[in-house]
Known about the structure:
alpha/beta, Enolase-like, domain 1, nine-stranded mixed sheet, 13 helices
Amino acid sequence: MKIESLSALEILDSRGRPTLRAYCQLVGGRRHAASVPSGASTGAAEAMELRDKDPERYGGRGCRKAAANVSGPVHDALAGREFGSQADFDGALIDLDGTEKKSHLGANAILAVSLAFARAAAAEREQELFRYFGSLLEQDSFYLPRLTINLFSGGLHAGRQVAVQDVLLVPLSAKTIDESLVHTSRVYHAAAALVEKRYGMRLLTADEGGLAPPFASTDEMFATTVEAIEDSGLEPGRDMAIAADVASSHFFSHGYYEVDGGRLSASEMRKCLQRWSDQYPLVSIEDGLAEDDWENWPALCRDLGSDRLIVGDDLLCTKVDRISRAVNSKACNALLLKVNQVGTLTEAAKAFQCARAAGWQVTVSVRSGDTGDDWAADLAVGWSGNQFKPGSVTQSERLEKYNRLLEIEHDHGFLLRGWME
Length: 421
């Protein structure tokens, strides 16, 4: 596969903030594009986005420098070169950047080009994108992922009215993507009715489409979720369970977790998570402790990980070295995979394989600032992720992913994974 041209431009994400769209054209082929997301809740070990830091444009968040890096030095270095694989192409990008966290060219620039090349390569092979992604792991049988879908938001995704970032729905009894979305829609609208009645709020949504009423406490958020499930006619814990993106790093300060007006030690935070798990149908806890609280993660996983997911996001940042450390210390049993945390498809694939080799579950996730590009749905299917976390059942950038899953399900009839399967 020989590169004809590479280019990029600054576009806007779902929050109205700049991100990047890259274009790749192979010799003799058409031009193909890919757009990259951007997170609000980010881990310290993530690959670095390149931002312009010009206060006159988007508060310094502009991406013109990153776009210029693609159209300039990346194109100049790679145009006319032949690449036999995605790994070869991504390796050239990594070498060209030359920094550990991709701070020279920008992780946003590198990932956008990596994905655009994948689209172009899939088209040259006349493959659907999910099959091309599967080929990166030498995988030729596919499953649809179980969904985890935002319902309520706090933390950095909303107004910090509660510390916990997201409460998500997990459709357990659904047998298809279609049925999963039907069940979730019922709960979402039941929750919306509760929010209007109880808080007098219309449907104002957070970054990922979740509802964000002024809950007085985290317990109130969990309890309202259970009530919405019941009001929808579904049974909590059987038809519909709950997942929590706690995002503890963002309310951890000077050795304490600041939750619902209290200051909790790590052992007290673990007990709090235990109580929530006992009281509510909580089947997944993401970033229940802070990203550098390595000492206490193993105890959390030991206490709660036998029958629920203990998911590392900021803890792991889709990095093989951090995943390996967590495997060795038994810190968690699941990886939240975000490709833009590491910067290329090839590096994300290695992280995926590292987690799976340890017997972990893998949840493929998007970010709070997303675009209408649906490649993440193809990735979740192509790598047969255990779960997929695209956001709520509102907002077009989220619905594009769900609609792509519906399309794949309709066209290919792949089976939906069971929970923790």
